[in-house]
Amino acid sequence: MCPQNDAEALEMHQYPYISIVGCLMYLAVTTRPDIAYVTRVLARFNSNPGLAHWQAAKHVLHYLKGTMDYKLVYKPSTSPKPFITYSDADNGGNPDNGKSTGGYVVKFGSGAVSWSSKLQALVALSTTEAEHISAVEVGKEILWMRQFIGELGYPFTGPSMLRMDNQSAIAVSKNPEHHSKMKHLSLHLFWLRDAVQDGLITPSFVTTQEMAADIFTKALDRFKVQSDSRFRNVLECLVYSFRSLEPCTDMGECYLLLDFALFLIWVSVQCSKSCYLIRIA
């Protein structure tokens, strides 16, 4: 897929591939979680892209053009937890080095507020290892989110929910019953077990059909993404729309959602200086 001769390399010099990928990366980090995975894959070839990569980048631009009306919708959810986190990983999805891709999404109320799709730093020998490594990364995000919400004046009284679709990875995070197969991992990957024992994180099982983070670990076809309800709150993105808080019966949750909305407004003004359209209904 990379240029095979000097003629192909010279032809690629006339295309702004790196600039396009940089723009896509900005969107994937800020308002478009649905293109996070494909953007990470395209960025791997920045040093030597080929025509196939350029065609793929243009395909993403066409997709964005057709989904400009997508938005994140924030409203109170039926869950008693302020936020819910989903963690997922594939197994050796990168054919170049055999490394797995880990992804997660943090949903605050009904909308996504934090997400990631990243190639793992080491080669996992099993799906359990890949899922456990991904859970460790998202565990750091969970602790930061707990601290941030506490600084807003809403301290936590219970553990935060971490949803995974791998029973073995959940068991590893709770007890060392699979020690013989996991003992070769770095010691820093086992701090998740301490966080679980300390009551900060509670891993729970969710079926693959309900795993919202699946879109961050592999390429999915358009029909599956559009028809699958687990991706709707992840896909509807670009315009932040904070709907009415009247259905919320817990006033503490309502005020917390409003505080988070004001925080997003402050970030858009202070950090990115971009023209985010924020509508508070």
Task: Give your account of this protein's structure.
This protein has 281 residues and is α/β, with parallel strands linked by helices. It has two domains: 6-66, no CATH class; 73-235, Nucleotidyltransferase, domain 5 (2-Layer Sandwich), CATH 3.30.420. It has eleven helices and eight strands. Helix 11 (251-272) links the parallel strand 7 and strand 8 (278-280). Helix 2 packs antiparallel against helix 3 and helix 2 packs across helix 4.
Would you kindly provide a brief summary of this structure?
By secondary structure, the protein is an alpha/beta fold. The protein has helices spanning 6-12, 17-30, 36-43, 51-66, 127-151, 167-174, 179-182, 191-197, 222-227, 232-235, 251-272; strands spanning 73-74, 83-89, 101-108, 111-119, 160-164, 201-205, 240-242, 278-280.
Query: CATH architecture of the largest domain, please?
Result: 2-Layer Sandwich
- Number of beta strands: 8
Number of domains: 2
Query: Which stretches are poorly predicted, pLDDT < 50 over at least 5 residues?
Result: 236-249, 268-281
The rounded Rg comes to 20 Å
Strand arrangement across the biggest beta sheet: 4-3-2-5-6
**Gross geometry:** globular
Summarize the biggest pleated sheet. 5 strands, mixed
What share of residues are in beta strands? 5-15%
CATH class assignment of the largest domain = Alpha Beta
* H-E order: HHHHEEEEHEHHHEHHEHE
What's the helical proportion of residues?
Answer: 40-55%
**End-to-end C-alpha gap:** 48 Å
Mean pLDDT: 78
Structural class designation: alpha/beta
Number of DSSP helical runs: 11
* CATH topology group of the largest domain: Nucleotidyltransferase, domain 5
CATH superfamily of the largest domain: Ribonuclease H-like superfamily/Ribonuclease H
